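Task: sequence design from structure.
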């Protein structure tokens, strides 16, 4: 099914709506122009709120550009026909302004931007109507009325733009904004039809009743209720005398919504029965009879018209709004990555805290503990601890070296002054040993708790900073593209992969990410390539091969734009002795289009130094891959290292992150050796006076911003490569600048090793060259 998808898409027939309705395609533009002119005419003849007629100008400003001039002409004709010349003049001037500006936009093929003509028309209308008000001695009330109607023109035009400007798939609204726009367009059309009657029956009221029943037929009681209330508002705004009719239609709509699952005759009967509320409120018998007939006509038409016709009436989708789904999908993926990375950091901190060795403690409070335990009932207690307190305390201070010994203090080890005075020297020695052990345990516990608290506080601080960065990224980057999402959903439906969820989002840089969730399936590499090509064509973007992520019964296909650049990474690592190097390396791309290179140099050489370097590099990789910035990553890794002893915890950190879409790079250094950037045969040096991580409670790193171009080579080195001197290493890099990255790294690393003298050190050279993707 998937392998033949491309052929199926290219051969699918294009069936135009005009051909389905029987209208020849060449006559379709003329039909649309006539409809636009009719809308302008009807809007000009529709009074609102006691005599205002803004809908003609609003339709002229809101319809698509090719038909705007016709709508403006129809509105002008309607105003001239329905109003005296003095009253029609402001409307005619506004229609002329709209026609002029929309016509110029059409000839210049400008984007659809109707609000500027609407604003200009409102200003012209306000000026002319205000001038006529002053000339007619209407004064300030006339000016305020003109300004209010001008603002009404602008506001209603904005609402109608939502209906005309947003394309709908098959005429159906896809989200809350489109449903609101469709509802307002329905209300505007009802207001336009209010002045017209057929055989004494109101066209607008019958149309409103039929529309409410049609919406109820879709099984959406909420949509039926909203449509009924909107119809009542539109009828009352056009003519306050329609209040009783609007009340009847609203009551019928609310009742019909409760019977949406019943047959059509039952729903129509319930609607007409509830509509009798309006009949009972009619100002006269004739008015009540007219409303009853109109409701019955609408109910009969609802029962007799084909059922398939009502399936095209929009209904509210049961799922959440598109924007919420897109935001939750993106946020969920990022938080999962963050959770995994923080678990690794938390496990490391916990393991280190559990293995903390006991710390030495002074004997400042040892005397009080021994006196309470051994001398409390002794008759010489006051003599020893009060009269001769100085000698007693000096004797205990002399015992400090023995107390620290594993065997403790024996009776024979007591100073002579204590042996002469104490009647129970064995008991005294045991009390000293017990008190010293308890005191040492308490001090170790306090040290342990203090270190854990400090680490936890630093971890919370670093985590808060990192999550704030991620929250800012989510807020800025996730802008949904609803039209492309609907096209993507239709694409997968046509090839037989009915999507469960489809999202397309664009970040602040203009990059597009698409996600499609389908029932769990397996795809080959060729199938994913075909799918990616079709999605790229549909979204007009070049995507990298789709990532296939399986979760439970769902398979998620993730499409990201293909980066403009790639990185050729080469490493040469020469241990100082044996096969173990204290320099740990990580180089990897992430899902956001960045390439990360990490070089961690453990202080010293051999296995003991390698523990800190490997630990720091692995944790840094997890955090950078999860989306943390370099500074936040260094703080979190520092927590894991700071609780260890000094000879194992100090690590020099180099982290380079390259944006593969723009070439922008961030170089973060904490106690690391100088780094170099080779460009056009020259080498720029980046260094800083910073301390390694794992020593202090905080991190003193330095952040450099770089801008890389294709052909540039960034070089990260450990301090062993700088042993011959920075100037010598810079000259070596310049000499090999034109070599391939692997050849450059090998040549420079081996030359540095030959320059080392009696104390060899680990030498690591990492070369990263940026190239354009073809």
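Answer:
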């Amino acid at each position: 099914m998937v392998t033949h998808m491309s052929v199926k898409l290219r051969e699918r027939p294009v069936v135009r709506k005009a051909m389905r309705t029987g209208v020849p395609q060449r006559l379709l533009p003329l039909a649309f122009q006539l409809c636009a002119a009719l809308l302008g005419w009807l809007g000009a003849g529709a009074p609102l709120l006691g005599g205002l007629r803004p809908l003609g100008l609003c339709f002229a400003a809101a319809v698509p550009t090719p038909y705007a001039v016709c709508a403006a002409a129809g509105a002008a004709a309607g105003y001239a026909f329905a109003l005296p010349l003095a009253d029609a003049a402001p409307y005619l001037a506004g229609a002329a302004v709209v026609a002029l500006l929309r016509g110029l936009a059409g000839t210049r093929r400008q984007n659809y931007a109707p609000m500027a003509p609407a604003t200009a028309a409102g200003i012209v209308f306000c000026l002319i109507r205000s001038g006529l008000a002053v000339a007619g001695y209407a004064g300030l009330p006339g000016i305020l009325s003109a300004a209010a109607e001008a603002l009404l023109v602008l506001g209603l035009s904005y609402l109608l733009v939502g209906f005309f400007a947003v394309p709908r798939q098959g005429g159906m609204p896809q989200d809350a904004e489109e449903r609101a726009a469709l509802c307002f367009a329905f209300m505007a059309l009802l207001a336009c039809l209010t002045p017209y009657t057929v055989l004494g029956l109101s066209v607008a009221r019958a149309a409103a009743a039929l529309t409410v029943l049609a919406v109820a037929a879709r099984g959406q009681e909420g949509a039926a209720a909203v449509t009924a209330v909107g119809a009542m508002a539109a009828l009352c705004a056009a003519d306050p005398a329609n209040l009783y009719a609007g009340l009847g239609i609203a009551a019928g709509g609310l009742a019909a919504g409760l019977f949406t699952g019943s047959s059509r005759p039952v729903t129509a009967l319930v609607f007409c029965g509830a509509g009798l509320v309006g009949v009972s409120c009619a100002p006269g018998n004739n008015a009540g009879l007219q409303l009853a007939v109109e409701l019955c006509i609408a109910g009969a038409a609802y029962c007799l018209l084909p059922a398939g016709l009502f399936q095209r009436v929009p209904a509210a989708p049961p799922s959440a709004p598109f924007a919420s789904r897109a935001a939750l999908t993106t946020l969920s993926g990022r938080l999962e990555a963050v959770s995994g990375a923080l678990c690794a950091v938390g496990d490391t901190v916990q393991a280190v805290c559990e293995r903390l060795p006991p710390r030495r403690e002074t004997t400042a409070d040892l005397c009080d503990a021994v006196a309470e335990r051994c001398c409390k009932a002794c008759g010489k207690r006051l003599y020893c601890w009060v009269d001769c307190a100085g000698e007693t305390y000096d004797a205990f201070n002399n015992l400090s070296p023995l107390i620290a010994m594993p065997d403790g203090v024996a009776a024979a080890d007591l100073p002579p002054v204590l042996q002469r005075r104490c009647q129970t020297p064995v008991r005294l020695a045991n009390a000293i040993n017990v008190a010293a052990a308890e005191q040492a345990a308490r001090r170790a516990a306090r040290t342990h708790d203090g270190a854990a608290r400090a680490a936890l506080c630093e971890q919370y601080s670093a985590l808060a900073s990192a999550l704030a960065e991620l929250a800012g990224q989510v807020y800025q980057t996730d802008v949904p593209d609803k039209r492309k999402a609907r096209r993507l959903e239709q694409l997968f439906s046509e090839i037989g992969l009915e999507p469960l969820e489809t999202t397309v989002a664009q970040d602040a840089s203009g990059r597009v990410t698409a996600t499609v969730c389908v029932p769990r399936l397996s795809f080959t590499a060729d199938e994913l390539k075909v799918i990616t090509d079709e999605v790229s064509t549909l979204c007009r973007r070049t995507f990298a091969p789709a990532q296939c992520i399986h979760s439970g019964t769902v398979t998620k296909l993730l499409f990201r734009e293909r980066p403009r650049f790639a990185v050729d990474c080469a490493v040469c690592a020469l241990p100082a002795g044996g096969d173990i190097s204290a320099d740990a390396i990580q180089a990897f791309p992430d899902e956001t289009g960045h390439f990360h290179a990490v070089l961690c140099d453990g202080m010293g050489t051999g296995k003991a130094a390698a523990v800190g370097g490997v630990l720091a590099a692995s944790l840094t990789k997890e955090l950078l891959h999860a989306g943390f910035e370099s500074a936040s990553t260094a703080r979190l890794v520092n927590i894991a290292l700071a609780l260890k002893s000094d000879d194992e915890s100090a690590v020099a950190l180099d982290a380079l992150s390259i944006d593969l879409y723009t070439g922008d790079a961030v170089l973060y250094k904490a106690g690391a050796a100088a780094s170099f950037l080779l460009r056009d045969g020259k080498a720029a040096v980046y260094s800083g006076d910073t301390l390694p991580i794992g020593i202090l409670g905080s991190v003193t790193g330095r952040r450099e911003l770089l801008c890389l171009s294709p052909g540039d080579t960034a070089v990260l080195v450990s301090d062993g490569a700088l042993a011959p001197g920075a100037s010598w290493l810079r000259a070596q890099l310049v000499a090999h600048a034109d070599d391939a990255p692997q050849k450059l790294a090998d040549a420079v690393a081996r030359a540095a090793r030959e320059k080392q003298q009696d104390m060899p050190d680990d030498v690591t050279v990492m070369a990263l060259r940026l190239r354009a993707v073809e």
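The first strand starts at residue 197 and ends at 198.
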